[in-house]
Specification:
The complex is a heterodimer. Chain A is mainly α. Helices cover 70% and strands 0% of the residues of chain A. In chain A, 2% of the residues are buried. By secondary structure, chain B is α+β, with helices and mostly antiparallel strands. Chain B folds into two domains: 34 residues, no CATH class; 117 residues, Cupredoxins -  blue copper proteins (Immunoglobulin-like, Sandwich). Chain B contains one helix and ten strands. In chain B, strands 1, 2, 3, 5 and 8 form a five-stranded mixed β-sheet that branches. In chain B, β2 and β3 form a beta hairpin. Chain B starts with 9 loop residues before the first helix and ends in a 20-residue tail after the last strand. The chains are: A mainly alpha, B alpha+beta. Chains A and B meet through α2 of A and α1 and β8 of B.
Chain lengths: 50, 182
């Protein structure tokens, strides 16, 4: 594994965690879309239940 | 333990807020549909003597199946018993509010009509009442989804959903709900 310089290490640690944000947004948005599809696209068109 | 002094990583804290926001969104949408569109978990609690179903007015053999009362309310009365649902075939209209009243003659059963929202447990000693609508005409199986014995796999029945204009009410219109104390 290639060693990174101390300068690069500091830059990475101080920068915004873009990858983590991307992962959080992808999971969050995907989860919401899947839930909305199941609720409004599958459950509701099958008729009310009471 | 002092929970106020626990260190939570700022990023983790943000993820907690996102999770709570998502859960709040789902709960709000469910609540709105419950309040304004009448979508609720079936919650009828009504007891009945499972050993004397044939002696009750409502679930006597001649009274089973689909009936329409004087107010136009359509009710399907069904008995579940090892290993079938009675009557074996019923026909109901699409896009119409239907009330199903299910009882068990023996053990715990479940009922599930695939591709619809009709699904409930049928507990001996209780009447399971579910009101629903079948938007799409077609033939659907009625399946038992609670293991009830060796013949459970073969416990099924049929329901035919026809377009509203092609459905005619059965001749008999004797609806006798809520008279099953015993």
């Amino acid at each position: 594994m290639q060693e990174i310089s101390e300068e690069d290490r500091k830059r990475i640690l101080q920068s915004s965690p873009v990858g983590t944000w991307a992962l959080m947004l992808t999971v969050g948005i995907g989860f919401v879309i899947a839930w909305l599809f199941l609720y409004y696209g599958v459950f509701m068109p099958r008729g009310i239940v009471d | 333990m002092d929970f106020h002094n626990i260190h939570i990583d700022p990023l983790e804290k943000k993820w907690i807020y996102v999770s709570l926001a998502i859960a709040g969104l789902f709960a709000s949408l469910t609540l709105i549909n419950s309040l304004f569109n009448g979508i609720n978990a079936p919650s009828n609690v009504e007891t009945i003597d499972s050993a004397r179903l044939h002696l009750t007015k409502e679930f006597a053999e001649d009274n089973l199946g689909v009936q329409v009362d004087e107010n136009g309310k359509i009710t399907a009365r069904m008995v579940a018993g090892r290993y079938s649902f009675f009557p074996k075939h019923i026909t109901v209209p699409a896009d119409t509010r239907l009330t199903f009243r299910w009882v068990s003659i023996d053990v715990l059963h479940g009922v599930h009509i695939p591709m619809t929202n009709m699904s409930t447990m049928i507990v001996p000693g209780y009447v399971s009442e579910v009101t629903t609508v079948f938007p799409k005409p077609g033939k659907y199986p009625i399946l038992c989804n609670e293991y009830c014995g060796l013949g459970h796999d073969h416990m099924w029945s049929n329901i035919v959903v026809v377009a509203k204009e092609h459905w005619s009410a059965p001749a008999e219109t004797q609806s006798e709900g809520n008279t099953n104390d015993g």
